[in-house]
Amino acid sequence: MSLGAYVVRRLLHLVPIALGVTILAFFLIHLVPGDPARTILGNQATDQRVALLRHQWGLDRPLPVQYEKFMGRTVRGDLGTSLFYGVSAGRLVLQRLPVTLWLIGFGALLSVLIAVPLAALAATHRDGIPDHVVRAVPLVGLGFPAFWLGIVLLFVFGLHLGRAFPVGGYGNGFAGHLHSMFLPALTVAFGIAPILVRSLRASLLEVLESDYIVTARSKGLPERRVLARHALRNAVISTVSVLGVNIGYLVGGTLVIEQVYALPGIGQLMINSINQRDFPVVQGVTLVFSVMVVLVYLLTDVAHALLDPRVRFE
Amino acid sequence: MAVAAEVVAEAQLVEHRRGFWQRWYRTPSFVGGVSILGLIVLAAAAAPLITQHDPAQQDLLHSLGGPSSSHWLGTDDLGRDVWSRLVYGARTDLRVAFLAVLFPFSIGTLIGLLAGYYGRWIDTVTNWLVNVVVAFPFYVLIIALVFVLGPGTRSIYIAITLVGWVSYARIIRGEVLVAKRRDYVLAAKAGGLSDARILFRHLLPNVITQAIVFAMSDIVLDILAIVTLGYLGLGVQPPTPDWGRMIADGQTFLTTHWELSTIPGVAIVITALGLSLLADGLADLLRPE
Question: Which neighbouring-strand residues pair with B75?
């Protein structure tokens, strides 16, 4: 199968999933107990105001008609109007999206920078002390609540140790972002790195026993070169896949971390909107988050197919 | 023939169990996990005996006090005893987490059994639902669901069930796909046993192991979700003490009283470590040799 055909097939595969995602996001409002319009506006609201909102959102129409309307505007990129700010929810999301994308990208990069050396150390010292230490990383690391880790890092590096990093905000310019986002990205990375370490170690061990590594060694290549040029390169492919599969976990983590570091991303937008009972924005952000995850799944599949042509023929 | 197959399946199960009793104390991770978790569960269960104060009782004259013989870990900004809140918080969070894992475990296992065994449209629909739920980031969906359902434990159970069943369904489905081609299932079928009997008496005991092991690590994820919701103010509602809320309350005083946020965090990490060790140990013990 050519790469183009493979991509098209993956895209077609995504259509029913995208449809399901919109259905679930659409149904969120119908999970609100009682009358959604009344619940969202609160007890103080007049009956008129409630009836108006119910009509505006089409809650007085049959479900299929409501879904059709919802899909119609979602496809056009219209996520509804914010109850709190009175502007389009899509615009609010777009304004804040770069911060979240920065955090995800930076966090993913740091997680790879943490995981690869640790896994290489463990795999080359199988059953030795470094291996045992590294194997304990997922055991301990997965139990850290991301928000608490964020607070601890903030306390140690933001308030003490020479106040090396700012305690909040997004910073200005590329260098500013890099500086301001370092602690938040590190928090994101600590959340996902344990999973990466575990799978990268396992795949490195497998690769190190394969024939081509034996060949490379018997050619007399130095061990360092065998590891860096031959083994790691192949093991990284599976790590990219693992990172892709767990991107949902990583992306979800940013939600809470933005809150801890007061980063103006879409995670913070979602939490603020929850506190303001701004339903259209919450729904919009939920939808945008899942679209991001689905796109990453697609990108991971394509990257995997590019790096390892075998998957295209499975 | 069917009876013979049942006897064989039973014998394998018994052997499994005997192996477990002979080996559990030689599996360090299992012993470590059980010890850590046992201590925490014991402390939570004996909360009224090992604390001197009501966790919700305020004492504004003694707020933000240091450790003393009356308040072992000091008091928070409202003068509440930190040790009492920690122990009663363990009660809340462990109870909610253990209950929260039961629903997705049962529902996911049932759906996985049916999807794997019958295949066809049941499998197609299950796969589609799994893929849709997985497309949402875990925390985003949990937080959105708890928001629309209203804060509190009931919403936590519903949200975790709606999101969590997919993992169990996937695991069990995969196991059933392999197991249903095995001799003992084919023999049971040939012997004319009912589908229900094959599913629950023959397949279930043989495929459930992976789901149980996963459930242990899933509780870790659920505890983290519960305290995260508590931190965001969407979880267990005051005055019931919860570790997440304790961390949030303490964050305001980070510069002067860093221990207020640190202590409950350490409790979470230790609890999670106990559960992870238990999961690791169980995986070792229950793995067929």
Answer: B81
Asked if B90 and B147 count as a contact pair (C-beta separation under 8 A), the reply is no
CB contact under 8 A, A143 and B224: yes
B 249-278 → A contacts, CB under 8 A: 251, 254-255, 258, 261-262, 265, 268-273, 275-277
Residues near A82 by beta carbon (within 8 Å), at least 6 away in sequence: A88, A89, A92, A273, A278, A280, A281
Q: Per-residue pLDDT for B92 more than 90? A: no
- Alpha carbon of B15: minimum distance to chain A alpha carbons (Å): 29
- Cβ-defined contact of A31 to B150 (cutoff 8 Å): no
User: The pTM is what?
Assistant: 0.85
A313 close to A117: Cβ distance less than 8 angstroms: no
pLDDT one-digit tens code per residue, A91-124: 889 999 999 999 998 998 998 888 888 888 888 8
- Predicted confidence at residue A260, as pLDDT, reads 87
3-state secondary structure of B75: strand
Probe site for chain B from A12, A27, A151, A294 (most B CB atoms < 10 A) = A151
Give the Cα separation of B169 and A275 in Å (integer).
34
Token reading at A91: 């615009």
ipTM over 0.90: no
As a whole number of angstroms, the distance between CA A268 and CA A271 comes to 5
